[in-house]
Amino acid sequence: MTGDGTRPSVEARGISKAFGGVAALDAVDFEVRWSEVHALVGENGAGKTTLCNILAGIYRADAGQVLVDGAERDFRSPAHAIDAGIGMVHQHFRLVEPMTVAENIHLGWPETPGVVSQRALVDRTEQFMGEMGLHVDPTARIWQLSVGEQQRVEILRVLARGARVLILDEPTAVLTAKEADDLFRVIRELAASGLSIIFITHKLREVLAVSDRLTVLRQGVREITRPTEGATASEIARLMTGEERVLDVEHRTVTGQAALELKGVSALNDRGIEALHDLDLTVRSGEILGIAGVSGNGQSELAEVICALRPLQSGSITLDGADLASLSVRAVTDIGVGHIPEDRIGMGMVLSAPVKDNAVLHNYWTEEFSQGLTLDRQGVINFAKQLVETARVQTRSVFSTAGQMSGGNQQRLVARREALAADRLLVAAHPTRGLDVNAAQEVRSTLIDKRDSGCAVLLISDDLDEVLLMGDRIAVMYEGRIMGVFDSADADREHIGLLMGGHSAVEAAS
Amino acid sequence: MTPLGSIASAVLRATPWRLERRLEVEARRAALSRIGGAVGAMVLVGILLLLTGRNAFWIFWQALDAIFGRQRGIEGAALRAIPILMTALGVALSLRMKVWNIGSDGQFLMGALAAVGVGIHMDGPGWLVLILMAVAATLAGAVWILVPALARAYWDVNEIITTLLLNFVALQLVTWSALGFWRDKEAAVIQSTREVSHTLPGLPGANSVTIALLVPLVIAAALWWVFRSTTIGYEIDTIGGNPRAAGFAGIAVRRRILVVMLFTGAIAGLGGMLQLSAPGAQAMNAGFSAQFGLSGFIVAALAGASFWGVIGGGLFIASMFYAGIVLQTKGLSVYIIFAIYGVILTGIALGEIAARYRVVRRDADEAASHPGAAVGTEASREAGP
Fold first, then answer.
1. DSSP string of A64-103?
2. pLDDT band at B158 (very low <50, low <70, confident <90, very high)
3. pLDDT score, position B269
4. Any idea where the domains of chain B sit in the sequence?
5. What is the pLDDT averaged over residues B160-177?
C-alpha cells in the first residue's frame, strides 16, 4: 500500500452535492496520493468539509464517483469508509462526554477485547498513545478535558481504527502553536510511514509548513491542485478569497485607571481543582489585553469567573471600581459586560430555537424588548434582522432554527451580539477559532471598533499570531498564573513562547 | 435517522423516489400529517376487521353514531376529555422544558382528594365551597410534585422515576380514604368516600357537562400566550433547548425548573377537582382515575408539546375511548378495542414522524448511479453536534 508517493490512494471524480437547492460542491475532482500530506484549503463554505464528509461516507454525493486504490466504492455509512481505511477527525467532537479517554478510544473498536478491565483499557491506551506520540490522561473523563485535549483523543481514536487515509478537519483550529507543531510532526511521520493525510485548513502558514500538495476550493469549485513547493501564501490567499485582505492593527498605549481589575483571584475548574491561583490582572478602557497561552491553562475559567459564570474562591474582581464578583450573571451583563464564550454552540446558542430568539439571548429582558412580563415580538424580529445584516450572517430567515446555519455564521452571530452588549468590557474567548480569513478579519475589526469606542477588551486566544496582532498589551498565562505582561512593542515571540511553555521569566531571559 | 426512516429509505431505494428530511416543519403540515396517520390507521383497522369476517363498515358507523349521533355521545366524550386534557396540558408544559412529569395521574388524584376533603367538611354557599375545592386541589397537585421538583431542580435527580413512583403512593392514599377516614358509612357501596354535595354549573344546553370543560381551553390559551409573548415562555423554551445557554443568559435555571414543575402538578391537581365536581362523580374511590394521567401523557407526547395540539388530540382520544365503550356494549371484544386504540395511536405517532420527511423524485440518471442519496445527509445531520 505504501510507496512511491505518486499512486493515488483516494480519488474523487466530478463530485457534486447540493443542500436544499444550494450547490455546495460542483463537479469537483480531487486526488490524494499515498505517503502525502494534502492540504485542502478554502474559506468557510468553500465545500472542504462537505467534500471530506463524502469521502468519509457521511454524506452521499448527488453525482460523481469515489475511488479508493483505483476501485470505485459506494460508501453508505462512515463504517464503510473506515473499512476501506478512510477515517475522519471532525471539527466538532464525537466523543462520549461522561466516559473516560480510554473508554472512548476503545468504544466500537473491533480490537477491544470482549472482556476487559479498566486497568487493561488504560494500559492499552497508554501504550497506543506512546506509539503515536500523543498523550492525554487515559483516566480523565472527556468533559473534564480542554478542547485541545479532546481533539487529541479524537485523533487517537481514528488512528486506532487503522485509518490509512486520515482526514483532519481544521485540526489546528483548537491547538496552540506548540501543540500544532507536535501534530505536524505526527502527521509527517504518519505520511512517511505510507499513509495519506488530508488536512483541511485555512491557515496558510500551516499549508506551507506541512503539506506536500495542496488543493484550493472556492465556492464549491476546485481552483487549483499543485505541489506546495514553490507556492506562496499570498498566491493561495488570492485563490481562496479572490482578493487579498490584510488587517493592519495600530497598537495603542493606554495609561490611566484600570477598568477591569483582578486581585488575588483563585477559582476551581469543573473537576474541583484550583485552576486560577492568586491571579492579578488589569485591563484598561480603550485597550485590548491579549492573553497568550496553551489552552487548558485556566483561560476558560478566567473568562467565566469574570462573567460570574464560575464562583470566585478568593480575591476580588472590580470593573471601574465596582465589585463584579458579587453580581449575578444578569447584573454583570446589565452593567455592560459582553462575553463571547469559548464554546459558542454549547453555551452561547440554543440550536433548536429560531435565529431571532438567539439574537436576543443576552438582552431580551431589557426595556428595549420587555415591558414587565411581555416580550415585544416585533421588536425582537427587527433587532434580529438588523443583527443578521450587520454581522453578515447567512441564514434563510430569522425564523429558521440556529442549528441550520453553518458554524461560521453561528459564530458571527454570537460575536456581534456580545459586542453589542459590551459597553464597558468585552471578554472574547477564542473569537476567531474556526473562522476563515474574511470572517476572522470581521470579528477582529469588531474588537478593534469596541476598543476604539473606549471599551476594555480581554482577548483570550491560543493563536499566538492573533494575540500578537491584536493585543495592545499581552499577558502570558500558564497553569492558572500570569507569567508576564508586555506592551506590544516589547513583545518578543520567542520569549512569550517560552513563558507559554512554563519557563519562568528568569529562565526565559537567560 | 429513525428506524422507520431507515426502513422507508431502504424500500424507496428500489424506486425512482427518495426520502429527504425537511429542514422545517410548519404547524399545519404537522397537524395534517397526524390526522393522516390516524385516518390511515383506521383504514388499516377496517381492512383487518373485514379480513376477520367482521362488518367493519357497521362498526365504524356505530362508533361515529355513538359519539356524534346523539347529545349523550358528545357529552360522554367531553366528560372523558376534561381529565385527559388537564393532565396532558401539565405534561405538555413540562415538555417545553424537556422535563418529563410522568406523575400527573398521582397529582390528579391528590387534587381530587383535597377537593373531597374540603367539599365534605365545609359548610357554606356552593360557589364558595367549589372555589375553595379548586384552590385546595391546585395546591395539592403542586405539593404532590414538590419533592420530585426540588430533587430535580437542585440535585439533578431524574424526575421520571420520582414522579412515576408517587403515582402509586397517591393511589394508596385514595384507597385508604375511601376505605377508612372519609368512608361513606351510609352508602351501599363500601369502597367510596362520602359525596360532595355541590357540582359546578352545567354548560347551557348540556345535561351533564359543566363549565369545567372551559377550564382546559382557558389554560391552553393562557399557555399559548405565555410561550408566544412573554419573557417567561422565552426562558422556559431556552432552558428546554440548552440549559447551559440559559445559565449563560443569566436565567435562574434551577428556580425556573422548580416553579414550572409545580405548575404542571397544579394543573393536573385542578383537573382532579374538575372531575370530582361533575354530576354523578362527587365521591372518590380507587377507580377514580381511569389512568387519565397516562392518556394525558400520550396526548402531550403526540402533540409535540403544542398546547392547541393537546386540545385537538385530547378531544380525539376521549372520543375514541368513549366510542370503544359503546362498541363493547355492541358485542365487540374488549381486546379488539384495545388493539384498535393501539393501531390508531401508532398511526398518529407515524404521522408525527412522517411530517418531518418528504419524498422527492430522483433524476433518471441519478437514480441509476446513486440510489438513496439523501440518506447519508440525514444521518450526518443527526450525528452532528
1. EEEEETTEEE--SSHHHHHHTTEEEE-SS----TTSBHHH
2. very high
3. 97
4. 71-325
5. 93
For residues A447 and A453, give the distance between their C-alpha atoms in angstroms, rounded to a whole number: 10
Instruction: Tell me whether residue A251 is in a domain.
Output: no
**Distance of alpha carbon A449 from alpha carbon A286, whole angstroms:** 10
Q: Please write the tens of the pLDDT for every residue from B7-42.
A: 766 777 777 777 777 767 778 888 899 999 999 999
pLDDT at A503: 67
CATH topology of domain B71-325: ABC transporter involved in vitamin B12 uptake, BtuC (1.10.3470)
**pLDDT for position B359:** 77
Partner residue facing A375 (CB), from B230, B374, B384: B230
Pick the closest to residue A47 from A202, A267, A156 (CA basis). A202
| Residues A164, A51 within the same domain | yes
Contact flag A347-B245 (C-beta cutoff 8 Å):
yes
Higher pLDDT, A456 or B6: A456
pLDDT of residue A247: 59
A181 and A326 inside one domain: no
Residue A439 is part of a domain; what is its CATH number? 3.40.50.300
Closest CA to A427 of A467, A456, A449, A404: A456
Contact across the interface for A77 and B370, Cβ inside 8 Å: no
User: Please, are residues A155 and A103 in contact by the beta-carbon 8 Å criterion?
Assistant: no
- Inter-chain contact A328–B250, Cβ cutoff 8 Å? yes
- Inter-chain CB pairs, A–B, below 8 Å: 107
Residue A141 lies in a domain: yes
Interchain proximity B234–A349, CB inside 8 Å = no
Q: How far apart are CA B101 and CA B94, in angstroms?
A: 6
pLDDT bracket for residue A466 (50, 70, 90): confident
Partners of residue A421 in chain B, C-beta under 8 Å:
none
